[in-house]
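Handout, page 2. Input:
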Amino acid sequence: MTRKFFLFLNLLLIAVFAYRLLALYAEIKYRNTKGQNSVDYSLVDIKRPPLKIREEYRNIFGLKLSEIAKENSKPDSGNRALNELVSGDEVVRVIGIFISKDIRYAVISLSHKKKKHKKEVKKVIVGDKIKDFSVISILPGSISLADAASNKIDLRIFVTVNG
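Output:
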């Protein structure tokens, strides 16, 4: 009796194993052919004619096109980067300006020209000292510094976060 039982149990286990093996084979085969039967989507290429800008709209600042070209080709005078101040061998760079209901502060980095890999990041508020300069105002687009002779320097930032 036990021999027949174990023989029946072995045949049952072999049948279950064969069934699972067949299911696994079918899944692998389906996975390989799935990409071939999938629907290809094609994006529609819309070709629009270029917008024609009337001459009166181009001239919104009262300049002729030749004057606009001259105006755009002028080099930027003053500081090369509007978000940094070079004082001797030290560079003060504005990283970000953060304004919330309670406080306004700016994040700056101080670095040396010779030691480019050493940067000191500081959070400053109005009244703080940065090297020889003091922070006189922090606005959404810029931070204003003044030196001992009350010369005002505006450092602009291009990304602001209002909280």
